[in-house]
Amino acid sequence: MDYGEYQSPLGKIVYYTEGNKLVKLFFSDQLMKGCGVKKNNKQIDQWLDYYFQGRQPSFADIALNINLTAFQKRVFKQVMAIKPGETKSYGEIAKQLGMKTGGARAIGRCLANNPVLLIIPCHRVVGSDGSLVGYAGGIDRKKKLLIFEQRGNND
């Protein structure tokens, strides 16, 4: 497994790849061990460039190599449908998936294990009252990402 580093306006991003497929993407202050050879991936770097330049890169442009349960696939598909500048609550996503009591918590647990931040934009998921809760990259970074997107920087 190789890894690459990308310097974003919100701090260093580290990602792991196997071949040309993305395995994991996170902010460098989230501890991750087991680095392989440092080898930046041009496709992932370009996606991140586009994102932080205010463009709206397609999720389809990134080949992923992540093992997901059927539930994670359903949740991540809903999250990836949230447009930049918009948010949905954990409860709204649970309702879209036909879940009942406890659904919001299950969505939260699922998103807490998001292996590829930004690519699966879990920062767009908020509490039922709109509060910023639960982001592996940190609440401050979640707030900055949402402000960045809400200003229309990703149109």
TrEMBL record:
One example of a Gene Ontology biological process annotation: DNA repair
EC number: 2.1.1.63
GO molecular function: methylated-DNA-[protein]-cysteine S-methyltransferase activity
Gene3D superfamilies given in the database record: Methylated DNA-protein cysteine methyltransferase domain, Winged helix-like DNA-binding domain superfamily/Winged helix DNA-binding domain
Domain Methylguanine DNA methyltransferase ribonuclease-like: 3-65
Catalytically driven reaction(s): a 4-O-methyl-thymidine in DNA + L-cysteinyl-[protein] = a thymidine in DNA + S-methyl-L-cysteinyl-[protein]; a 6-O-methyl-2'-deoxyguanosine in DNA + L-cysteinyl-[protein] = S-methyl-L-cysteinyl-[protein] + a 2'-deoxyguanosine in DNA
Membrane spanning residue stretches: none
First and last residue of the signal peptide: none
Keywords: DNA damage, DNA repair, Methyltransferase, Transferase
Segments forming domain Methylated-DNA-[protein]-cysteine S-methyltransferase DNA binding: 70-150
PANTHER family: METHYLATED-DNA--PROTEIN-CYSTEINE METHYLTRANSFERASE
Family to which the UniProt record says this protein belongs: Belongs to the MGMT family.
Entry protein name: methylated-DNA--[protein]-cysteine S-methyltransferase
Organism: Lactobacillus gigeriorum DSM 23908 = CRBIP 24.85
